[in-house]
């Protein structure tokens, strides 16, 4: 009890002493119609088109028609081959199988990204696997060395149901993939293509991190919550992390995962009319580009304070001086 009380005081003191993060400026918000399963859980900018996935749909992804304020999700069917064994233990796999009957979506797609050749990559949280979609539409699971999962679990990640891989990013050449482990512990991993197999180059784990952090002061009844990652975006050689419970986007060194700078979006996301009844963050999708950031909300079909029930994508302006500015 005393230890927990001391930790709470330390978190509060640290929060009070820290300089407030610069706030991103909201430019627009777009409800999304047409997602069969709702639950927008990833976002990618491929050329000039935005694409998204739902963690309830195993057989389709979505191209977004962004011509109006309300965006339309256009269905693109995919033929997914059987999932390979990633090395997750039987207990996690069995819970995934049971959950698929309750909520739908055995594959639990949680992130999408693309390379300069037009290949798209979708991460399956439930199977810790990555599906590659060629420009022709054909789908194949990447051959990922089981060492990746072993290293992640040895570092304390991928131990809990529904807390596995939550996002991914790929470099333009399509030979490096970063993966984000969601929480308890959260972490960042890097795998590289070596001929036909994706493997660790000296080690997969860039970051493994436990602990709590305070929610932003705009959150009603703010409390200390688990550190988490909800998505990744690679821009100009830097890795950007969507940190859902902290309502922030952070720029990190892509080789070491070291934090370089963070920006908050809490002031806009937690305005009273935009609040959801959940006492945690709901953002799950991130794309960073030169002009700003797209951030998507997975509202689990629940309504926010103004009654909006559709998934939402926000457009934030890039910070003054751009994303590469110094602290």
TrEMBL record:
> Which organism does this record belong to?
Pseudomonas chlororaphis
State if Signal is listed as a keyword.
yes
- Pfam families in alphabetical order: Phytase-like (PF13449)
Alphabetically ordered keywords of this record: Signal
Record's superkingdom? Answer: Bacteria
Q: Where is each Phytase-like domain found? A: 38-185
**Keyword Metal-binding in annotation:** no
Protein name, as recorded: DNA topoisomerase IV subunit B
- Provide the leader sequence positions: 1-18
């Amino acid at each position: 009890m005393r230890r927990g009380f001391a930790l709470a005081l330390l978190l509060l003191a640290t929060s009070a002493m820290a300089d407030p993060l610069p706030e991103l400026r909201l430019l627009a918000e777009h409800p999304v119609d047409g997602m069969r399963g709702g639950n927008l859980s990833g976002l990618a900018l491929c050329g000039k088109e935005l694409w998204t996935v739902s963690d309830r749909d195993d057989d389709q992804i979505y191209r977004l028609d962004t011509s109006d304020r309300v965006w339309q999700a256009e269905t693109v069917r995919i033929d997914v081959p059987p999932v390979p064994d990633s090395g997750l233990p039987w207990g996690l796999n069995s819970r995934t199988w049971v959950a698929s009957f309750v909520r739908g979506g055995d594959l639990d797609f949680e992130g999408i990204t693309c390379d300069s050749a037009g290949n798209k990559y979708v991460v399956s949280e439930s199977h810790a696997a990555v599906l590659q979609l060629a420009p022709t539409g054909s789908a194949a699971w990447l051959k990922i060395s089981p060492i990746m999962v072993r290293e992640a679990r040895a570092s304390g990640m991928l131990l809990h149901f529904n807390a596995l891989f939550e996002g991914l990013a790929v470099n333009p050449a399509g030979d490096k993939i970063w993966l984000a482990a969601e929480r308890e512990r959260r972490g960042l991993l890097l795998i590289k293509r070596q001929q036909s197999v994706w493997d660790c180059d000296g080690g997969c784990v860039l970051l493994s991190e436990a602990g709590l952090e305070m929610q932003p002061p705009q959150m009603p009844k703010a409390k200390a919550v688990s550190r988490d990652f909800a998505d990744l975006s690679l821009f100009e050689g830097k890795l950007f992390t969507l940190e859902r419970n902290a309502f922030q986007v952070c720029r990190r060194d892509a080789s070491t995962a070291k934090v370089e700078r963070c920006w908050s979006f809490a002031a806009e996301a937690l305005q009273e009319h935009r609040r959801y009844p959940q006492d945690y963050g709901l953002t799950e999708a991130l794309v960073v580009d030169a002009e700003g950031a797209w951030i998507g909300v997975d509202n689990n079909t629940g309504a926010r304070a103004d009654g909006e029930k559709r998934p939402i994508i926000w457009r934030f302006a890039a910070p003054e001086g751009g994303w590469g500015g110094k602290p």
